[in-house]
């Protein structure tokens, strides 16, 4: 199974907004910071998702699961000094990103950890989505296992 079909469906409008913000370099109070780079992959019976959140305190991270949608919110604090900025490529404030999970993932058993600026989610594949053996009777009375 492909990662995208099990993990999330792409929202083309959100992706277009993200690309526009990157290209124009829009940061500040009117732009909604949405840059939260992510990698996702399947490792056996688990999906693993990593979000880059440099400069974010662990206590500012908020994870919510509602039905099959995981929302990740984090906050990078404002700069403490008022020095004149020469470059401001790292947006500050609240970041959020949503993942729409397929029905074949177990949202009841998601685990999360945060280390060195990387938030890691582990999402197990639901039991109903795992391959299983089914015995098929033959006319000779023998049983044969077939993977479903």
UniProtKB/TrEMBL annotation:
The UniProt record lists the SHSP domain at 29-139
Q: PROSITE patterns annotated for this entry?
A: SHSP (PS01031)
Q: Which family does it belong to?
A: Belongs to the small heat shock protein (HSP20) family.
| CDD domains reported in the protein's UniProt record | ACD_sHsps-like
Recorded superkingdom: Bacteria
Which organism is this entry from? Nostocoides australiense Ben110
Q: Which Pfam families match?
A: HSP20
What this protein is called in its record is: 18 kDa antigen 2
InterPro entries noted in UniProt = A-crystallin/Hsp20_dom, HSP20-like_chaperone, Small_HSP
């Amino acid at each position: 199974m492909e990662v995208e079909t099990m993990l999330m469906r792409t929202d083309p409008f959100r992706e277009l907004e993200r690309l526009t913000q990157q290209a124009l370099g829009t940061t500040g109070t009117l732009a909604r910071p949405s840059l939260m780079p992510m990698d996702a992959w399947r490792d056996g019976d688990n999906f693993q998702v990593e979000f880059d959140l440099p400069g974010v305190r662990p206590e500012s991270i908020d994870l919510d699961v509602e039905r099959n949608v995981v929302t990740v919110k984090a906050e990078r604090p404002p700069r403490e000094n008022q020095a004149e900025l020469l470059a401001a490529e790292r947006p500050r404030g609240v970041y959020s990103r949503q993942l729409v999970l397929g029905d074949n993932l177990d949202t009841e058993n998601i685990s999360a950890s945060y280390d060195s600026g990387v938030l890691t989610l582990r999402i197990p594949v639901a039991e109903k989505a795992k391959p299983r053996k089914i015995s098929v009777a033959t006319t000779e009375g023998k049983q044969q296992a077939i993977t479903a």
